[in-house]
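Lecture 7, part B: from sequences to assemblies.

Below are the input chains for today's worked example.
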Amino acid sequence: MNAPTLMALLIILPALSAVLIWTCAHRSGLAWAWSMISTTLIFALSLVLFVWSWRTGADGERLINSAGDFFHTQGVAWVDNLGLRFSMGMDSITMWLVMLTTFLMPLVVLGSRSAVESRHREFFGWLMLLQAAMIGTFIARDLIFFYVCFEFTLIPLFFLIGVFGSTDRLKAARVFFLYTFTGSMLTFAGLLYVAWYSAGITGSWTFDIATLTESAQTMSTSQQGMVLLALLAGFAVKVPLFPVHTWLPLAHTEAPTAGSVILAGVLLKLGTYGLIRFALPMVPEAAVDFAPYIGVFAVIGILYTALICWVQKDIKKLIAYSSVSHLGFCVLGIFAIAGNQHLGQSGAVLYMVNHGLATGALFLCVGMIYERFHTREMRQYGGIAAVMPVWSFFFVFFCLASVGLPGLNGFVGEFLTTMGTFLSRETLGIGYAVAAAFGMILGAIYILYMVGKIIFGPLKLPESNGHGPDDQHGHHAKPRDLNSREITTLVPLAAACLFLGLYPTPMLRSLDRSVEQLVEPARQVLVERSRNDEHADTALVQIDARKLEEGTDR
Amino acid sequence: MSTPLSGMLLSHFLMTGAILFGLGLIGFVTRRNLIIMFLCTELMFQGVVISLVSLSLHHGNFEGQTFVIFVLTIAAAEAALALGLVVLLYRGRKTLDGTAWALLRG
Amino acid sequence: MTLMGEKLATIGPEMVLSVGALLCLFLGLARSARVRHATPLIAGVSLVLCIVGPMAWSAARPAAPGEIALVLGLAATPMAAFLKITIASIGLLLLLVSYRTPDQLPQNIEIERSGAAFDPGQTTRGEFFAFFLMSLAGAMLCAGADGLVWLFLALELTSLPTYIMLVTTRQSTLAREATVKYFFLGALAVAMFLYGFTLIYGATGVTQLYTTPVTEGLATVQSVVAEWRQEGQPLPLMLLVGMGLAILGISFKIAAVPMHLYTADVYQGATTPMTAFLAFVPKTAGFASLVLLLGTLGWPLPEPIAAMLWIMAVLTMTVGNVLGLMQTSVKRALAYSSIAHSGYMLVGLLAGSAAMEAGQPVVASGIAGILFYLVAYGVANLASFGVLGCLKRQGEEAETYQDISGLHHRHPWLAAIMLISLLSLIGLPPLVGFLGKIYLFAPAFFTGEPAMIWLVVIALINSAISAVYYLRIAAAIYFGQPSEEVERDEQTARMTGSGIAATAAVVLGLGAGALGLTDMLAKAADQPGKVLIQPADTDGDEAASEDRSNIPSATAGRN
Amino acid sequence: MDVSMVKWIPWISLLSAAICGVLCFRRAWGVWAAPVTITAIAASFVVAMLAAPSGLLRDDDGRIADALGKSPHDIGQTVKAIDWINLNERDALMDDGSPPATLEEARGLADQHQSARIIESGEAGYSVRVPGLSANFSYYIDPLTLLMLFVVCGIGSLVAIYGAGYMKGDKGYARFFAAVSIFIFAMTSMVMGDNLVLLFLGWEMVGLASYLLIGYYFKKPSAAAAARKAFIVNRIGDLGFALGIFLTYMRYDTVVISEVLAMATSPEHVADWRDYWIPFLLMLGALGKSAQIPLYVWLPDAMEGPTPVSALIHAATMVTSGVYMIARLHPLFENSPYALPTVATIGGVTAFFAATIATSQFDLKKIYAYSTVSQLGYMFLGVGMGVRYAIFGGLFHLLTHAFFKALLFLTSGNVMHGTHGQLDIRKLSGLRHLMPFTCWLMLAGCLSLAAFPLTAGFFSKDAILVGVFEQGLAETDPNRWYVVLGVLGLVTAFLTPFYAFRAWFRVFMGPEKYEMGTEAHGDEEEHAHPSGADSHLIDEDHHAHDDKPHEASWLMLAPLFVLALGALFVGIIGYKPVKELVEGSTAVISTGKESLISADLNLTLIIQIASGIIATLGILTAAYFHWLNRQAGQNLADRLAGPIRVLENKYWVDEIYDLAIVKPLRLLGWIFQLVDTLLVGGLVKLFGWLPRLLGQLARPSQSGVLHGYGLSMLAGVALLVLLILLAAR
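Predicted structure of the full complex, as C-alpha cells:
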C-alpha cells in the first residue's frame, strides 16, 4: 500500500460503496450502517495519508516535488489523445481540505441516522458519491479530472435537495443546479482555452495542472483577464461571491441537514479552492489587476449579506447568508496579494477548513431542532436553553466559532485574511481591511441576534410539535435534549474547533510552502511591476528635472 | 461533344433550369394539394436535370449526364413512394389538403 | 484477390446489410410465423457481421500500402470505417430497441392473436427490418461516398426507407401527419441539395470529391478548389452558392436551422423507437456528407460558407434549446434537444481539421469532435428514447412529463437509464457527453478566431439552458408522484437496448481511451478525403503529411 | 518558585472551566463547581504571587528596578507555553526577488524592515531574516503583569467565594462557575500575553465570558438584550483594536509587545504616519472594553448579570483592561502627539459625564455601574498623562477601585439577596438594623469611593489629579487643557461622594421601610416547579425570611470583610509597593522621573487637602438631602425636574444610538433583503427568463402547417444564400 493507491482508494471507495448501497442495501438500516463504515474507513485512510505526509519532512517543512505535492501520481491514462489522465496529487492545501471532507462525512452520516424516513438507499448512496466527487476535486492534478469531479458534485446534491429537501425543494434543486452549472460552463471554456494555449506553447496537448499553470502564465494580460473572468464565472458562483450568491440561501434552506452541512462544509470551498489553485497561479497578472475589483465585490458581499442576515426570520437562511459573508473574507484573503507575505492566502485556506467545521456544525445543530419541531422560523423558538441545555451549549459554541472568537477556530482564519488584506498594499490595502472588519461586527450582531432569539428569553416552543417522536406527549411535553448519538456527532466538531483555535500553528506551517508556491507567480508580477515603476519613476524624475532646468534657463 | 456548350447558350439553359427549379419552389409553398406539391418537387428535379445536362455539355464530360440518370431513378422512386403515401393519407382523411395536417405543433 | 478483398472491405458492410435487407424482405413474407419472426434475428446477424467483419478483416490483413481501396467512387477512408462501425453498433442497439415495434402494431397483434392466415397486405414485419437495414446501409454509404452522385444516392437511400418506416410503424393520424411533413419537406430539401450539387459540378466540372477511380491525375472537386485557393483566386460564386445550397439541403437531415422545422413534429408523431432511429441515422448520414463536402473546400472554410455555418450553428443550438424549454411533451423536448445537439456539432464542422493538419493533436480536429459526438449523442439519445418507448399510458405511448412522473418509484432501473442519458446529454462528467464536448469545442480554439471562441461560449451557455429541460425530466422522474395509469411495456429487448446504451455512456465516458475508441477516432479524424492509397515506402503518419501536398493537377479534366 | 511556572496560570482556569462544563451535565454534580473554581483561581493567585516576582528585574537593594530607559526585554521575562499562531521567520528579498548579494545590499534591505537580522550564509551571501507572524501562548511577566494578576486572581478568588454562597441553589450553578473560569482564563491570558494577538484573544474572550454571564438569567429578555449589547459594543471597540494590531504589524513586523515597545522607544525610531494612527486604533478597543465615551452604553445594562459578576467583571477586572492596555503600550501612545491627550480628555469627560448620570439613578446597581464608568474615566485620565505620577495614579486607582467597587457591588448583592431583588433606592430605607454587616461594609466601600481621606480611593484619586495638574501647570510647555481636566476631576470628586452616599443613606439610614422585590433573578425553576419560585436565591431558611430583608450568609460575608479591609487600607499599605511596581513596568520606560513643576509648589498636599474637603462636602450634602432632610431633597429635585429628567434618562444616549445607528442599519438590512430578492435575484431570474422569452418568440415558427414550414425554410435558405452572395463580394 502506497500513497497513490491510498489516494485512488479515497475516491474509489466511496463510489464503490455508493454502488453497493444502491444495489445491495435493501434494508434501511443497512444503507446507513454501510455508509457509516465506509466513511469511517475513508477517514481512517485519509488519516494514514495525513500521518505519512506529516512524516515526510521535519519541522513543518515538507518534501515537495516539482508539482508542489508531497504525494503525486500520474495515475492511469483516461483518454490518451486528449491528454487526460487520472493524475492525483496532494499538497498541504489538498490534504487539509480532504481531511475536512473525510472528517465531516462520518459525522454527517451519523447525524442523518433519523433524518430520512424513506429512500434510505438513495440518500446514502448519493452521499457516498458526493464524497467521492469532493475528494476527487481536491486531489485531482489533471484539469479535466478536477473539472469532472467539480461538476459531478452537482448531481448528488441535486438529488439530495430535490428528493429529501423541504417544501420548496424542487425549485431549490433546480436553481442550485442551473446556477452553478451555468457558471461552470464558462469556466469550462476558460479551461479549454488555457489547454489550447498551453498546447501552442509546449506543443503537446495535456491537461496536467502543473504544466498548464506554467504555460498559462505567459499569456498576455488581456488573455489572462478573459481566462480569469471565465474562471470566476464558475468559481465565484460556487463560493458564492456577491452578486451571484442568490442560489445559496434557497439551496441551504431547502436542503436536508446533510445536504446543508456538506454544501456549507465542503462544496462552497470548491469555489475558493478553484480560485486559489487556478486563478492565482495560472493568471497571476490578471489576478493582480482584478484583485481590487474582486475585493470590492467581496467586501460588498461581506457587509451586504451580513446586514441581510440580521433581518432573516429563517434560521437556516440566516446561516446560509452568513456563509456568503464569511466566504467574502476568504476571497478577500485569496486576492490579498502582496509582495512580501501571503498571510491572506494562508488565512483563506485556514478559513475554508474552519468555516467548514463551524458552519457545518451549525447546520447540524439546526437540523437537530428541526427534527424535533419541524420549523426553522426563529420567532417560533425562544429560551430553548431551558429545555435543551446541551443543544444550546453546542449551538452557542459553534456560533461563537463562527463569529470568530479568538481561541476558537474561526478567529485565526478571519484574523489572518483580514491582516493579509490590510498588509497587501499592492492590491487591496487598508481600506478593504477596514471595511471587512466592519463585517466582523455585523457578524457578531446577527449571530448573537439569532442566539438571543432562540436560546435566550422566555421559553417558547413551536406550536405544532407535530410529527416528531415527542408527539405522544403533546406539545407541552419537554422536548428531549440531544441523545448520545447526536452528542457524538457534535463533540468531534467542537473538539476540532477548539483544537484548531488553540493550536493552529502546525496547520499554518504546513500550509506555508504550498500556499507560497501558488502565490509566487502573482508575487513575481508585483515585483516586476514595482521594478518597472521604479524605472518609470526615475525616468519621470529625470524628465521633471530637465523641465526644471529648461524653466530656469528661460 | 466537340463544341462545348458555353457563353450565352449555356446561360440560357441554366436559366431554364433555374426557372423550373424556382417555379417548383413557388408551387410547393403556394399549392395546397399534396399531389400538386409533389409534382412541384418533380419540377424542381427537372430543373436540376436540365442544368446538369447543360453543364455536362459545357464541361465536356459525362459525369453530369450520369448524374441525371441517377436523379431520374431516384425521382421515380420518390414518386412511387409519394403516390403510395398520398393514397394512404387520402384513405384516412378524405382530403389531400396539405394544411389539414396540423395536429403536431409548438 | 488482394484487390478484390480490399474492394470488399470498402463496401462489404453495405453489401452485407443489403443482403440482409433482401433476406428480411423475402422471409417476412413467409407463411410460417416462426420464419417471419426470424427477420429481426437476420437483421441482427447482418449488423454483427458489419461490425465483426471489417474488424476481423483488418486484423487478419493489415492494410498494405499502395492498394486502391476505391470502388466506383466509394472510398474506404478511416473516417468511413469508424462511422460504419459506429452506425452498425448503434444500429444494433436500435434494433434491440425497435425489435418488437412491428409486433405492437394493432393489425399485427390482431392477426397474431386470431391466428388468421398470414396476409402480406396487412402485416409489415419483414419490410420494417429490411428498410431498417437499408437505411443503415445508406448512412454507411454516405460515410464512404467519394462523389456527388454517390453522396446523393446514399442520402436518398438513408431517407427513403425512413419515410416508409415512419408511416407503417404507428397506426395513428399523428404518424401520418409526421410522414407528410417529413416526406414533402424532405423532397424539398433533396431538390435543394441536388441543385447545390449541380452548381458544384458546374463550377468545378467534376463530381468526384477527393479521388479519381480510373486514372491518376484526373481532377476532383478537392483538387480544383485547392488549386484555386493556392493561386489565391476567389472561389467562383457558383461554387459557393452550390455549396451553400448543398449544405442547407443536407442540413435537413441533421435538423439544423432553417431546415429544422419538421423535426419536432416528426419525432413526436413517430413511434418512439422510430424516433430514436430518426434522431440518429439521418443525422449521422448528414454529418458524414457535410464533412465530406466541406472537406473539399478545406479548412479554414471560405468566409461566406463559414459565416453561414456560424449563423446556422448559433441559431440551431439556440432555437433547439429555447423551444425545448417550452415543451410539455418529453418526446418533443428531446426532439428539440436533438436540434440543439446538431447545433453543437456544427461547431466541430466549422472548426474542421485545419489545425490538425498543421501538426496539432487529434483534439484539434473538429472532425474528430463530430465523430465522437455522434457516438456520444447516439447512445444517450437511444437510451432516452428507449426508456420513453418502454412506457405506456393506457396503451398509448407515454410522452408527457406527467407520464414519466415518479418513474423512479415504479421502475428504478428505467429511471436510472433515463437519468444517465439525460446527464450525458447535458454533458455532465464523467459521462460520454462530456468527453464529446471536449472533443467538439476544443478544436474551435485551435482556429484561433475570436468568433469561434464566442461560438463555444454560446454553445456552453446553450448547454446550460438545455440543462433546464433535461433537469425537468430528471426531476419529474425522481421527485414526482408516480402515476398509476402509466405502466411498463414488457419489453426486455427495449430495456436491454437502452440499458446497454446507458452503460455505454458511462463506460465510454470513463474508458473511451482504454477501449481504444479514441485511437480509432484519431485515425478516423485524419483528413476526410484521405483514402487508403498510401505510397509504398512510408507508414501512416508520415504519409499523412505528404499526402496533402500531393494534390493532383486540377486542369486535366477540363478543357 | 520558578518564573516559568506562570505559564500554568491561565490553563489552570481553563481546566477548571472544562471540569465545570462537565459538571453542568448533572444537576447534582453542580455543587462541586464552586470548590473547583475557587481552588483554581486561588491556585492561580498563589502561583502568580510566588512565581512572578522571581522573574522581575531588581536593582541592587532588592527593589524592583526602575524601568526608565530600559529595554522591555530586560525588565520582564517571557515565558512560552505553546505555539498559537507561529509562522516561520522568512527571508526578506530584494525588490527583484533575489536575495541580497553584498553586505551593503543586505543592510539596505534590513533597513526597510523593522527587527530584521542579517545572517551571513557562507558563499551564498547574506540573508536578511525578518520575523514571521509570531503570536503564541507566551507570557510576558513584568511588574505591571504582577499587579494585574494580583487584582484579577485576588479579587477573583474573593468574588468566587462570595459567588459560591450567592448562587447557591441556582440551577445554573455549574454554568456560572464555568463562565467565571473562562473569564479568569481569558483575563490572565490578557494581562500576561506577550503579544498583541494573545492580548486580543483575552480581550475577546473576556467579552465572551461577560456575554455569558450577563445573559446568565437567559430567560429574562432584558438580560439577553444586555448581553448582546455588551458583546456587540465591545466588538466595535475590538474592530479598532484588531486594526491597530494590523497596523502595528505593518509598522514593526511583529506583534510581540516587548519587541514592539523596544523598537518604539529606541532612539533611532522615527515616527511615521502609522505610529500616529496605531494608538488611536488601539484606543478604540480600550474605549469599548473600559466603557468610555462613546462606547460606555453597554456597562450599565450589563448589571443584568448576577451581582458577583458585576463585581468581578464589570467593576473590578475586565473593564479595567482598557486601562491596562494603555499602560502596557504607553510608549506607543507617546509616539503619537495627540493620542494621550485624547485618552485623558475622554477619561476626564467620561468621569464627569457618568457621575452626573449616577446622581439621579434609582437602581442601586445602576448607580454603581455609572460610578464604575466614572471611575474608569479617572483611570483613563491618569494613564492618559505623560507623567509617571499620573500613570501610577491610574494604575493604583485600578487596584483600589477593584477593592471598593467589588465591595460595593457585593454588598448591594447582599441587599438584593435579602430583599428578593429589590434594588430601587426609593423603595428601601433604614435597613441598617436588618442587614447590619452589609450596612457597614458598604459604608467602607462608599467612603473609599468617595475618596474620604486616608481610605484607599483617596490616595489613588489624588495621585491622578496631582499628575494632571502637574502636567497642566508644568513649567516647560504647560498645557492648560489639563488644568481644565483637573478641575473637571475635582468637580467629579464632589459628585462621587454625593451619589455614593445618596444611595447608602437612602438604603440604610432613615426610617425602616421596604418593599420586597419580585425576584429579579429570572424564574429558572418556575417551569419545572411552579411553586418553587425564588428557591434558588435563598438558603434553607428561605421561608422564615420570606417577607423581610435579611442578612446574608457568612460564606458571603467573609470575603466582604477582606475587601473592606482592602478598600480602607490598601491606600496606605499599597502605595509604596504599587509605585514600585508601576515604575518598574513598561508603562514608564520612556517617561521621565523628575517632576515637571518646581519643588516648592507642594502640589500633592494642596490637592489632598482640597479633595478631602470636597469629599466631605459631598458626603454632607448627600447626608442632608437623603438622610437628614429627605423632604428638602425632594423639593430640590422638584425644582430641578428638567435637568434631572435628562439625567434620569441618561441623556437619551441609548435612544440616540438606537435611532442613529441601529435603526438605520437594520433598515438597511431590510432594504438589502428586498434588493437581494428583487434586484439581484430578479436579475438572475431575468437571465432565466431570457431563454423562455426567446422560446416564446420562436414558437410561432412551429405552426404545424406544412406550407408554413416550407415557406420558412425557403425564407431561411434565401437569406443564407443571400448572405453567401454578399459575403463573397
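Note for the exam: Chain A touches chain D through 73 residues (CB under 8 Å). Keep this in mind when comparing with the next example.
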